């Protein structure tokens, strides 16, 4: 059964607890240097005022990196308010930046449906938690609704050889072909690669990273 179909399970609470119970540096998805994502962002060659959307950002160090690199228009989302509180605590000295935080559910979106003209959608280790077809459809419907024509999408999820669970939850493992199928023919693959992420515990986690561009 799908994670998000288990109605008696409170996912918001699950993720809030994950961020409340341990320092972010100990989380099984913490990256001190999100270099794989950064390499794909650089490939987009976007202006610094492009509108970037980080889906399920958690307390990622990517936001600090983007701000330091001069990006000035970033929307940060997560289902867990505790994650975004943690993230805010890590960000200092960025007063002139347009940084928006949206606590909302990617597969049951409310605030997120109001977004538009996103230049770049970034997802690392979020989509793979949506194990049911209808959740995946809702996720991609939202993505396609808010992404600009010619906008870019970065998807980085556990690959087909990768772990079957994360944070105690089942995951859906991905290949580039599966991303393409979900995105549809309007999206062109720009680059993809496999990447082994090493958790703080020392265990490897196999990801597939991809960058697509919407062609209309
Ligand atoms: C494995 S963590 C990855 C966090 C971040 N992307 C990173 O790379 O560090 C998964 C994140 O997805 C968030 N998340 C899970 N389900 C979500 C949903 N339905 N809507 C929005 N965020 C969600 C969790 O709260 C968590 O922060």
List keywords for this structure.
alpha/beta; 216 residues; two-stranded antiparallel sheet; 28% helix; Rossmann fold
Write the layout of secondary structure elements.
Layout: H1 11-21, H2 35-44, E1 52-54, H3 62-68, E2 73-78, H4 81-90, E3 98-103, E4 118-124, H5 133-146, E5 147-158, E6 165-166, E7 169-170, H6 176-183, E8 187-198, E9 204-214
Parallel strand pairs: 1-2, 1-4, 2-3, 4-5
Antiparallel strand pairs: 5-9, 6-7, 8-9
Helix pairs in contact: 1-4
Bound molecules: S-adenosylmethionine.
Report on this structure:
This protein has helices spanning about 10-20, 35-45, 60-70, 80-90, 135-145, 175-185; strands spanning about 50-55, 75-80, 100-105, 120-125, 145-160, 165, 170, 185-200, 205-215. It is an alpha/beta fold and about 220 residues long. α1 (about 10-20) runs parallel beside α4. The relative contact order is 0.17. The mean pLDDT is about 95. Bound molecules: S-adenosylmethionine (SAM). The site of S-adenosylmethionine (SAM) has 20 residues, from α1 and β2.
């Amino acid at each position: 059964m799908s994670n998000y179909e288990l109605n008696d399970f409170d996912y918001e609470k699950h993720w809030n607890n994950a961020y409340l119970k341990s320092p972010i540096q100990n989380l099984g998805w913490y990256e001190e240097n999100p270099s794989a994502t950064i390499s794909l962002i650089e490939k987009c060659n976007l202006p610094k005022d492009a509108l970037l959307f980080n889906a399920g950002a958690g307390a990622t160090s990517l936001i600090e990196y983007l701000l330091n690199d001069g990006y000035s228009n970033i929307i940060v989302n997560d289902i867990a308010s505790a994650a975004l509180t943690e993230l805010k605590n890590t960000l200092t000295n960025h007063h002139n930046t347009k940084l928006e935080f949206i606590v909302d559910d990617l597969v049951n979106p409310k605030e997120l449906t109001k977004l538009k003209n996103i230049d770049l959608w970034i997802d690392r280790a979020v989509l793979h938690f949506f194990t049911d077809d209808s959740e995946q459809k809702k996720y991609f419907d939202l993505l396609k609704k808010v992404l600009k024509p010619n906008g870019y999408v970065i998807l980085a999820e556990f690959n087909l050889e990768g772990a079957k669970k994360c944070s105690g939850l089942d995951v859906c493992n991905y290949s580039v072909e599966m991303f393409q199928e979900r995105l549809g023919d309007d999206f062109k693959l720009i680059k993809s690669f496999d990447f082994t992420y090493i958790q703080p515990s020392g265990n490897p986690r196999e990801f597939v990273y991809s960058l697509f561009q919407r062609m209309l």
